Amino acid sequence: MSITAIIITALAIGIIVGGILVLKKSAHKFNLTAEQLADIKKRNEELDKEEKDQQKK
User: Domain coordinates of the chain in residue numbers?
Assistant: First the structure.
């Protein structure tokens, strides 16, 4: 391998690893209340029911 190929490969690996580390650092958990969780579960159940109804047709 030439020195140019090695530099390009190292640069590509560095960009990928750097991107992953930035994503990891900027990620955070959602702090949802019990009411919000209940709303999400209710909405998901409604959507599942609608999907089942559409598949039956």
Answer: 3-56
